[in-house]
TrEMBL record:
Transmembrane segments: none annotated. Residues 5-131 form the CENP-V/GFA domain. Keywords: Lyase, Metal-binding, Zinc. Belongs to the Gfa family. GO terms for molecular function: carbon-sulfur lyase activity; metal ion binding. The keyword Metal-binding applies. This is Glutathione-dependent formaldehyde-activating GFA.
């Protein structure tokens, strides 16, 4: 049975639904993903042969394609939130895990491009953790 997943941007202008199943969930540590997330890695789910439907705000979605690469990022023009991107070359929808409002149905499959991993994001197990801003 094909699953349906809902998501939105931070400001709520854009809402979407994905009809399909996720086959993989990668934490990508490449320098491009570090730049476009402003963090240590991107967390993207891949849904091959799935259907993406913009329920609201499609005109607020913009996509940046990094020249001469497969790297692309869709985002809300109002708040900058990452949104799903159609990756036609691999017949998949790439969904940023944090854009989902429904639960993420799987744990990460793998960390990729770890050779580019930000040095500050390694060995974090001894860093204090808090439930809220200390």
């Amino acid at each position: 049975m094909t699953e349906k997943h809902q998501g939105s941007c931070l400001c709520g202008s854009v809402k979407f639904e994905l009809s399909g199943d996720f086959q993989s969930f990668f934490l990508c540590h490449c320098t491009r993903c570090q730049k476009d997330t402003g963090s240590a890695h991107a967390a993207n789910l891949f849904a091959r042969g799935s259907t993406l439907t913009w329920l609201q705000g499609e005109s607020d979605v913009n996509t940046y394609n990094y020249p001469n690469s497969l790297h692309a990022k869709s985002f809300c023009q109002k708040c900058g939130s990452a949104l799903p991107t159609r990756a036609e070359s691999i017949d998949s929808i790439v969904v940023p895990a944090g854009s989902l409002d429904s639960s993420v149905p799987m744990t990460p499959t793998a960390k990729i491009f770890v050779g580019s991993c930000a040095s500050w994001s390694m060995n974090l197990s001894n860093i204090p953790s808090y439930d809220k801003l200390p």
